[in-house]
Amino acid sequence: MHLTVGPYSYEVLKAHQLIHPMSGDKLDGLIDFATGTIWIDDTVPTHRRLDVILHEYWHAWRHHFGKPENEEAQCDWFAAATMQFLREWHLQGCEFSLTCLDDEDANQRPRPQLRMVGKAMIG
Length: 123
What we know:
This protein is an alpha+beta fold and 123 residues long. It has one domain. It is 42% helix and 22% strand. It contains four helices and six strands. The strands form two sheets. The protein has a four-stranded mixed β-sheet. A hairpin with a 2-residue loop joins strand 1 and strand 2 (8-15). The longest helix has 21 residues, at 71-91. The radius of gyration is 15 Å and the shape is globular. The two termini are 18 Å apart.
């Protein structure tokens, strides 16, 4: 599954025994801003994957765009994030995209290295 946060690109992949790098706690999900990867622990059942992905997606929005200053800005921020997520969710098959995470080829596929140049992403 591929997601964007504004102009930033993230790939969603499964991991075995996902552990927080600082605390050592077991995690259901983790976001790596440096590589543009959202990791989902392979023990998370399919019916909970969307919750975990959305949780990490909000971390990405906050990382890239900061915390909104007031209620109006927060509502705009949530609306923009929700619309972008729903568009991509729909284009990737909604619930079907969650089961695609079980495809071993998808988890082994190399991710293109993208970088920002101005407001454009190039490979």
